[in-house]
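Q: Could you predict the 3D structure of F-box and leucine-rich repeat protein 18?
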Amino acid sequence: MSGTMRGISEDMDRQIVQAVFDEDTMSSTSVGMSDLSDEILLCILRHVPVCDLVRNVANVCHKLHTLCHDKTLLTNVSLSEEYLADDLLVRHILKQLANHVQSLSLNGCYWLCGSTVELLARCRGVTHLDVTGCRLTSLRLSRLLSSLSLLRSLAFDVTPGFNSAQLSSEAVDSLSRLSELRQTLLTPSYGVVPCCAQLRKLMLQFDISDVTREGIGVCCQLMMGQSSVPHYQQLEEFTARLAPGEVNQTLLLLYLAVFSVHVPKGLKVFLVSIPGPNPAHWPAAPSLAQSLGQRGDLEALQLPRSWLDSLSLKRALEGNSPKHLSFSRCPALWPQVFQSLLEGGVKDATQLTSLNLSGINKVLYSECRSVEDQLVPDTMSRLAVGCSNIKHLNLMHTHYHHENSPGLGAETHLCASLAKLTHLRSLTLPACALSDGLNTHQISTNNVSPSPLFLGLKKTPRVGLQNYKPDSESSLSGDSTSGLTLLLAGCPFLETLELIGPGFVSALPRLEPCTRASVEPRGMCAWARGVGDAHLAALEALPRLRRLTLAGLPGVLKGTGLIQLTRQCNDLQVLSLANMGSLKTMNYTPALLDTLKQCTQLQELRLEQPYLNANASFFEALSCCSRLQRLCLISRSGTFDPSAAETFMERCCHVIMCHMFMGGTLVACRTLQKALLDRFSVERSALSVVIYPLQHEDLPSVIRDIPLTLLDRITLFQSHVAQPPHSSPL
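A: Sure. Here are the predicted structure tokens for F-box and leucine-rich repeat protein 18:
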């Protein structure tokens, strides 16, 4: 029986024994799982992955065998992230599910061979199918669609070589009945959109490089000759998310051409996300916004900053009750956004559950920001009262500078205003928003200019274990956390938290040019420098924390707060740390090692630091994360111990992604990569190992070969809070 099932069983047995314990007679009756009713057992089994149900639990006893094949457990099945499910097991599962499953997801199952994916044709009752990331050619898709006449929702990748002319008439008939479609475009194409006349939901992800591997530019001119142009007469939801590149933007405008002529009457969700500071202009955006506001049923809106003006936004929101709004990098819309949300510009602001204000009030590279350029606590307090049901909030790339003046209590802090959002589940904040005021000790130290003679004689301080005190109090007078304490007390149910400093830029090249264009230099915000170990330690008040991102925090000195944090947040599953403390040395290594030893539930770790030393001690501590599945290390001048890395992979048998972009030679990196693949790829069919010098000129093409599902999950290091994910057709 799997560890998941065994844990659930032991928990249930423990609770039942406690419940029947008789204190008067001091006797107890043990009740096992076999004594539970079928209804209770089915409730338990719903939380067990289908692979474990079919392969392990069903073989325990006759009763469990019968229950594991109950149709209520096999109707909606997801094999996404079931990394241990190889081709043989998936074929066995599909055989068991063929007559039951109606909704099936193989999203991200990049390791399955094409012949296994083709066996999905046996599941003739499927109405919702997600094969994003799977190996699927035009002909294979045609055979699949020809067998799935009941299909109503489809998600797949449009890969190079895709040709809609190869689809059979039966396949086209199946597509004509689709109501939901999600396409990940890896080549310029309309995909199957022209065949889908009944679409109500269209979700697009554009991930096309501007140049081929041979260095030849990619263009969309071939698309102009296609006779079938998409029409969206019945469309209700349109979503498009773009990777950087001119080709992606050009292709998006081709998809949007129909909107310039006719806006579907039922359209109520329109989300377009374009990275970078200069999105392509679309003249039809104002008329689209006006059309969206006329029906009064707008649910979600996101447009690039150059597509909307204040008047268009006002018309779009007026009389509507949206659930999701995103105004990322739209500083010109700042006044209108709050006017609409706070002064009756929307019909019912309490319907809003997701709000992205990333970079909405940003003034580039200015230390002298006026009040109008910063988040105002009173305004945010009114927002929290009016939009009381917000669950997801993104304030990245904004600023708040708290003036710790006499007579002003903690209740005037921005965090006190945000604490009123009691339903928050995910939150992204700029680091300076946690500060209680300028750290006067730090500033005075930074402003003192020692004499040249002293600089010449000064001994470089040593960074080592002798100075490491896990529970020591910070000696800096400005390390107050009263504002943060109020926030944590008011939002105890936070599951995702991102704290990102104003100067953070990831070293990976895929999104780096777009990111750098909108991020100010590290160290520009003095308030952000005051956020340190005490603030990290305070996060222990979030017992439900599952995902934590900490990036660009120069005020973290020793990392002792990480130890205290992970000691209490026992269920942390995703941890991302980048550019903590000094960039000239890694001064929190001892604390990091102790932190990793406590992260027993961790499944993803991303660590980016210029001078990371992935030695034997590091990998030994990392081996304590027995449930780790995905690992990404990024270090410009970092080093690694090959034998320690191999030992770690042997101990942590669930790791299927090991990406290390470090220093060192290409030969050393390739040698370790080959050793890991040769040793572990047979038993881990989903294994993805990429070890490459970070500064090598061929790195962009290497990254392009990484499965997109892994690249998006951990390698890019970008905020996803309050970004509407592509709604899975499932």
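Q: Anything worth pointing out?
A: The longest strand covers residues 547-553.
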